[in-house]
Amino acid sequence: MSSKNTAIIIGGGISGKLAARVLSNHYKEVIILERDQEQVGPYPRKGAPQGEHLHALLHAGESGLEELFPGITEHFYHSGAIKINSTIDLAWFHHGAWKVRYDGGYSTTLQTRPHLEWHVEQYIKRIPNVVFYYNQVVQDLLYNEEQNQIIGVQLKDESFKADLVVDASGVSSLSSTWFRKQGFGITEEKVEINLSYVSKQFELSEDQDRDWKIKMVYPKPPQEKMGGTISKVEGNRYIVTLIGYHNSVNDKEVLKDNSGFIEMVKKLPRLDIYQEIENATPLTKTSLYRIPNIIWRRYDKVENLPNGLVVIGDTVCRIDPVFGQGMSIAILEALALQKLLQKHKGELHKVPVAFHKKAAKIISPIWNMVITEDLRYPATKGKKPFGLSIQQWYAKNIFLLSSQNQEVYNSFVKVMNLVRPITSLMKPSIIKSVLIFAFSNSRKS
Ligand SMILES: Cc1cc2nc3c(=O)[nH]c(=O)nc-3n(C[C@H](O)[C@H](O)[C@H](O)COP(=O)(O)OP(=O)(O)OC[C@H]3O[C@@H](n4cnc5c(N)ncnc54)[C@H](O)[C@@H]3O)c2cc1C
C-alpha cells in the first residue's frame, strides 16, 4: 500500500488509540494495526493481559481523557463505572498507618481496564479518517537508510507505506529490537523488582454497610513484600488484586484454586481484605501477571534518530504498576503529541524528536518517584538516584504524616495523581510539618 499523508500505528492498545485520536487532525488517513481480534465488548483480551488486574486512572489521566474525548467520563458512569470521592471512599493503609479520610473535593472513577479501553475504542471508531485493522501482526519497520527515514511497516504478507509510524506495541517493543538490529545505541534504564500481580473478581454480600469503595493495603518495605487492593467496579463486582515484590508470591499455591487465593489474602499485612472476601462468591478465575523489571528506553537520547517514527506509551517506559501511573503517562504523552502537531503544522517532520524529548520530561519525575520506593527493598537492582536515602526519609515522613495531617495528605494526593509536581511537597509549611513530626518521633523512640 502506498502512502498519501498517512500515519500508521502499531498496536491498538490505550496508547495506540490515543495517538490515533490526536493524529487524525493532522493526517488524511490514520491506520491502526492491532494483532488482537476485534473486541465485542468490555472484556479482557490476549494482547493486553494486564487488563485482568486492577487499573486505577489518576486525576491527570481522567481529565486528559476527558479533554481528548469530551463526555467519556459520563459514558463510563452510564455503563456502570463507580464515581467516588477520592479521599472519603478510599481507605488506604500505607507504611503502617491509615490515611486521613476527608472531603478534598476530588472524584475518581472505578472501573475495570477493559471497560475503560472499550469506551475509548468506541470513540475512536467514530472518527471518519481512522481505520482499525485487527489480526495484524507487524513484523518489522521499513527503513530508507539513505534518508534515515522510517517509511512504513512490514507484516507477514504485505507492507504499508506511511509518512509517520507510531510504535505503540507495548513493553515487548518492536522498535527497541529494530534499533538494536540496526546498530543504533539506545540507553535503557532498568530496575529489577520481580513483582507479581494476582487478581480475581468477587460478588460481595449486599447486606453489609461499607465505609469504602476501594481499600488498599500497601506493604511496608523492606520487611513486608505483599499488599492488596479491593475495589468496586462496574457490574456491582469487586476486583481483588494482590501484589508481591521480589518473588514473594508462590504462583503454584495462589493459582491452585479459590482457597489458594484466599490464603494469600490472609497473608497481607492486615486482615481487612480477607474479612471482606472470606465468604464472598468468586466470579472469575485467578489471573497472574509478572513484572520482572521496569524499563525506560531513552529514545530522547538516541543520536541521529530516524525520521518518521514516534514511540509512545509502555513501548518507551513501563513503570511499576503499583502506583497506577501507566495509562496516565500515555494520556499525558498523547496530549503532548497533540500540542507538538499543532505547533509544527506544515513541518510535521519536526515532531518526533521534539516528542521524545517532551515524553522524557513527563516520565522523568515519575520514574524517580517510583524507583525511590522500589529501592526500599535491598533486593531491587538498579541505578540509585542521587540523594536516595534523604528522599526516602522525606517521603516516608510524608506518608506517615498523611495519616494525621490533612494539608500534607492533600498535597500528596495531588502529587500521586500527577496534577502537581513533586516539588509542591517541599513548600515551607510542609517541610516544617515534616521536621516537627520527625523530631517528635525521634524523641519518642
Ligand atoms: C499488572 C498491571 C497493572 C497495571 N495497573 C495500572 C493501573 O492501575 N493504572 C494505570 O494507569 N496503569 C496500570 N498499568 C499500566 C498500563 O497497563 C499500561 O501503562 C498501558 O496498558 C500501556 O498501554 P500501551 O498501549 O502503551 O501498551 P499495551 O496496553 O501493552 O498495548 C499494546 C498493544 O499493541 C498490540 N501489539 C503488540 N505487538 C504488536 C505487533 N507486533 N503488531 C500489532 N499489534 C501489536 C497488543 O496486542 C496491544 O493491543 C498496569 C500494568 C500492569 C502490567
Can you describe this structure?
This protein is α/β, with parallel strands linked by helices and 445 residues long. The protein has three domains: 6-55 and 112-187 and 298-369, FAD/NAD(P)-binding domain, CATH 3.50.50.60; 193-292, Alpha-Beta Plaits, CATH 3.30.70; 388-444, no CATH class. The protein is built from 13 helices and 19 strands. The strands form four sheets. Strands 4, 5, 12, 13, 14, 15, 16, 17 and 19 form a nine-stranded mixed β-sheet that branches. It has a five-stranded parallel β-sheet with strand order 7-2-1-11-18. Helix 1 (14-23) links the parallel strand 1 and strand 2. Helix 1 runs parallel beside helix 4, helix 9 packs antiparallel against helix 10 (351-374) and helix 11 (388-401) crosses helix 13 (428-444). The longest helix is centred in the C-terminal third of the chain and has 24 residues, at 351-374. The protein starts with 5 loop residues before the first strand and ends with a helix. The relative contact order is 0.15. The mean pLDDT is 96. The structure holds flavin-adenine dinucleotide. Flavin-adenine dinucleotide binds next to helix 1, strand 17 and helix 9.
